[in-house]
Specification:
This protein is of the alpha/beta class and 246 residues long. Helix content is 46%, strand content 14%. It folds into three domains: 64 residues, no CATH class; 128 residues, Alpha/Beta hydrolase fold, catalytic domain (Rossmann fold, 3-Layer(aba) Sandwich), CATH 3.40.50; 34 residues, no CATH class.
């Protein structure tokens, strides 16, 4: 995120804070925008030196994505292992894995995800990140494995659901409970309860929490999954697509 992106983040936070005094809906709108704006924590000098050391033997990597380019690195030769960082983080954060994976005979691939690190963008979401994960894997000719950290774990799961192919997946401290992420978010940005209630409502609307219950594809896949578990049942089961339209 550049200086302009940092200013957008600050102004959005201020609006969410001030709005929390007056209106749940207004505060929720700005909290929602803040939620999808990756925040960047400043690196200590010690961390900078450590990560620079991890990257010494890597080669810069640029991958076309959308209207921009994802920036990252690669190292080693062999089956590709993709490193996926967490929200507000950067690819170099997983640098401790580079040497061990290269020594084990793998090629390491990692990028700063959209709106993170050196990659362009101000806001993103889990589905946009999942698309970037799939684009990165496709660019390097497919991956054997994925190592994902924190929110990167959830985004990797979405990418796998969207046909990312990987034989081995390692999730490190993966985010699996939304309310834990929201508690951290509330504490980090010192948001008022009214803003958090508005955010919860906005997220529910945005994710189609109720709408998915009548989505034919969702219903059809649920029926197909349940149907696939029926073994030895001689009753004629209706086609899942037909059942979803009833």
């Amino acid at each position: 995120m550049n200086r302009a992106g940092g200013r957008v983040l600050w102004l959005t936070w201020l609006a969410a804070r001030v709005g929390g005094r007056f209106s749940e809906r207004i505060a929720g709108f700005f909290a929602w925008r803040l939620w999808f704006t990756p925040w960047r924590l400043e690196l200590s000098e010690r961390a900078r030196i450590r990560e620079a050391g991890w990257l010494e033997k890597t080669t810069p990597l640029s991958i076309p994505f959308g209207r921009g380019v994802l920036h990252g690195f690669t190292a080693g030769e062999g089956p590709s292992v993709l490193l996926v960082h967490g929200w507000g983080d950067r690819a170099s954060r997983l640098g401790a894995l580079i040497a061990p994976l290269v020594d084990a005979g793998f090629r390491v691939v990692a990028v700063d995800l959209p709106a993170h690190g050196a990659s362009p963008g101000v806001r993103t979401n889990a589905y946009g990140v999942a698309a970037a994960i799939r684009a990165t894997a496709q660019h390097v000719g497919g991956v054997y494995g994925v190592v994902a950290h924190s929110m990167g774990g959830l985004e990797t799961i979405i990418a796998l659901r969207q046909e990312l192919a990987a034989e081995r997946v390692v999730l490190l401290a993966s985010a699996v409970r939304l309310h834990h992420a929201m508690e951290r978010f509330e504490t980090m940005f010192v948001l008022r309860p009214r803003a958090m209630r508005g955010l919860a409502a906005a997220l529910t609307r945005g994710l189609g929490h109720d709408r998915l219950l009548r989505d034919p594809d969702v219903v059809g896949e649920a029926v197909a999954f349940l149907r696939s578990g029926v073994e030895g049942d001689r009753r004629a089961l209706p086609d899942a697509a037909t059942a979803s339209r009833r």
